[in-house]
Amino acid sequence: MSKPEKSMQTLRLHTHPQASLRSCFKQTLLSLECLEDNTWMVKTPRGHVHAKKVVVATNAYTRALLPDFWGKITPVKGVVSHLQTESNKTLETNMVHTIPVEIDYISVRDDGSLVVGGGGQTYKTSPNREMMVDNADDSYFPEETRQYFAGYANRNYKSLTDIKFVNDYTWTGCMGFTEDGFPFVGDLTAYGRPNMFISAGFTGHGMPRIFSCSKYLSELIMGKEPATSIPAPFMLSFERMSMQTPYLDSLSEKCGTAPV
Ligand SMILES: Cc1cc2nc3c(=O)[nH]c(=O)nc-3n(C[C@H](O)[C@H](O)[C@H](O)COP(=O)(O)OP(=O)(O)OC[C@H]3O[C@@H](n4cnc5c(N)ncnc54)[C@H](O)[C@@H]3O)c2cc1C
């Protein structure tokens, strides 16, 4: 700890002559191998780590480590833009537009600027079609979606037609979508992976959910009956674990059209 900030100085801890801390953060996990005694060999490019228990929290990328999650957690990329304005005449409330499957949403910031997300319409044509859904390669930037958001406020709101908005930031990332929309949270022992725990598949809603899911999972890992409760649909069940319907197929069935 450094004073007076009381913040953890990781680099100092690492380089301290008497400290022996091996950090494994930001290491790509190559594979997980279950040993005879039901412990795990975690393989990374910097070497192997022997662990009694492992937690898989890799969300959209889970199927790369656990192949049976192919079809259970599908990578779907999200895009959000920030529309800056100097005008104080902007939207008064947050909005959600559904047209009919794709959802666009707007969050109004205190300074009048807008954060706009969604853009599903732009996922229907190439190259977004191939790159944004069922594809975990996050080196791709969806230029078409950025453009879709750039004029969003002027295009869609009469009251904002003449207001100047500047799309100053656009960001994208890989989300993990499940067919039923709920994450997989729990102990994988009963599903052939002893001492492995999972918390993944947040379907674009991780921010309000991850805290209680992590608390619940930590109690499970300690071998306790969890005092923290999570909604039953988030838990593992044989029904959910045998789910074979990839997100896209099921969306297609329900809505008659997939977003790609
Ligand atoms: C543009 C955008 C807007 C969003 N807006 C919202 C919002 O408004 N509200 C909301 O609730 N959620 C939102 N989300 C979703 C939210 O970001 C996710 O729900 C949340 O990040 C999930 O957290 P996570 O820790 O489960 O997964 P992630 O944040 O995806 O973290 C998974 C981590 O696992 C790592 N990883 C994967 N594979 C390996 C491997 N083999 N080895 C080592 N590391 C690995 C990845 O590098 C990553 O750091 C948004 C997402 C995007 C992209």
Outline the low-pLDDT stretches: 1-8, 254-260
Radius of gyration, rounded? 22 Å
Within the largest sheet, what's the order of strands? 6-7-8-5-9
> Strand pairing plus helix content: what structural class?
alpha+beta
Give the percentage of residues in beta strands. 25-35%
Structure ligands: flavin-adenine dinucleotide
Q: How many helical elements?
A: 8
Distance between the termini: 50 Å
How many DSSP-defined strands? Answer: 11
Average pLDDT level: 86
Shape: elongated
CATH architecture of one domain: 2-Layer Sandwich
Q: In CATH, what is the class of one domain?
A: Alpha Beta
Helix content: 10-25%
Element string (H = helix, E = strand): HEEEEHEEEEHHHEEEHHH
CATH topology of one domain: Alpha-Beta Plaits
Biggest sheet overview: 5 strands, antiparallel
Could you describe the 3D structure shown?
InterPro entries: FAD-dep_OxRdtase (IPR006076), FAD/NAD-bd_sf (IPR036188). Residues 36-220 form the FAD dependent oxidoreductase domain. Pfam families: DAO (PF01266). With 260 residues, this protein is α+β, with helices and mostly antiparallel strands. It has a domain at 73-178: Alpha-Beta Plaits (2-Layer Sandwich), CATH 3.30.70. The chain contains eight helices and eleven strands. The strands form three sheets. The chain has a five-stranded antiparallel β-sheet. A three-stranded antiparallel β-sheet has the order 1-2-3, with no helix packed on it. A three-stranded mixed β-sheet has the order 4-11-10, with helices on one face. A hairpin with a 5-residue loop joins strand 7 (103-108) and strand 8. It is elongated, with a radius of gyration of 22 Å. It starts with 9 loop residues before the first helix and ends in a 5-residue tail after the last helix. Mean pLDDT is 86; it is low at 1-8 and 254-260. Residues 28-29, 57-61, 64-65, 78-80, 117, 171-173, 175, 200, 202, 204-208, 210 line the site of flavin-adenine dinucleotide.
